[in-house]
Amino acid sequence: xxxxxxxxxxxxxxxxxxxxxxxxxxxxxxxxxxxxxxxxxxxxxxxxxxxxxxxxxxxxxxxxxxxxxxxxxxxxxxxxxxxxxxxxxxxxxxxxxxxxxxxxxxxxxxxxxxxxxxxxxxxxxxxxxxxxxxxxxxxxxxxxxxxxxxxxxxxxxxxxxxxxxxxxxxxxxxxxxxxxxxxxxxxxxxxxxxxxxxxxxxxxxxxxxxxxxxxxxxxxxxxxxxxxxxxxxxxxxxxxxxxxxxxxxxxxxxxxxxxxxxxxxxxxxxxxxxxxxxxxxxxxxxxxxxxxxxxxxxxxxxxxxxxxxxxxxxxxxxxxxxxxxxxxxxxxxxxxxxxxxxxxxxxxxxxxxxxxxxxxxxxxxxxxxxxxxxxxxxxxxxxxxxxxxxxxxxxxxx
Length: 398
Fold this sequence. Notes:
The protein contains 11 helices and 10 strands. With 398 residues, the protein is of the alpha+beta class. The protein has 3 domains: 16-103, Butyryl-Coa Dehydrogenase, subunit A, domain 1, CATH 1.10.540.10; 130-236, Beta Barrel (Butyryl-CoA Dehydrogenase, subunit A, domain 2), CATH 2.40.110; 240-397, Butyryl-CoA Dehydrogenase, subunit A, domain 3, CATH 1.20.140.10. Strands 1, 2, 3, 4, 5, 6, 7 and 8 form an 8-stranded mixed β-sheet that branches. A two-stranded antiparallel ribbon has the order 9-10. A hairpin with a 2-residue loop joins strand 4 and strand 5. Helix 8 packs antiparallel against helix 9 (359-366). The two termini are 36 Å apart. Residues 1-10 have low confidence and may be disordered.
């Protein structure tokens, strides 16, 4: 692994404080997380609990927990640019080890003071996080097909439905459930906070996936689950608006992590190509090896500029709908480019690239899902096409 310190200012000019934050995140990733990658792989992603607690303590000590949340809640109050700098470092690690860094989904900031105190504050201390339950058997990339219902009752609401692929649902302290509340003939998408131990919450299945990550993605069924009136987060009928902001951040996060993965892949593969000798020449001297690496470097540089633009637009408070489209562009481009980069790296390593001890092999498995979750590549193209129609070419591409 190459550990050369940053020599240039990436993207926009960074303040000394931002450069220090970037380096702090890099030190944490290289000294705390990367040494655990092979152990995590051997254990199927599940590290011993004492190791997990050590990661949490080190992350909190490095002030990397709860990045976007305010200090009054136990977070760091980062700008989106600062969040980008840290998440790019997290993306350099395989096996999803950065998931152990205490954090929460942005929708919790729309909660009441009581909800924030009950769920957000403990999450940022590393005492149990959240899980977002939106996908269903017949409603994936298009959330308009959601059938999970919320019916008013004397005490609050009764929720019925089934959610698939609830990432971290097996360890979450609270589930953020998208359900449709009915008012007359209107469908009102609404987010509810549901505790996993509530009567009627059933874990149906915990499928195994290609990657080895710390948490599962279970299927959860809700049968006549009663929640109080104050279980609604952000107001009845505001679920889609809150979800759009969640998707924007999640899609930018996928792009940012993908950029970190490409950085790590290029570091490892270029180092290998410069030192591996075949036919009396370094394999880097063969265009069949060096040209694909050049293509990957170009992809990484272009994707980074696009993702940085989205972060800048968010910090500037630009039009949320335009940002939504540009975040889709970043996710689409980087997720597909990172997959190409991993495939090229495996090829450059040859047989060694097919071993699970090789970073390229692990990323080849792990990066594939980025073209699916938080909206497939096809859905991202649909969002971008609609932006071209509704906001015009100039606004969409500039």
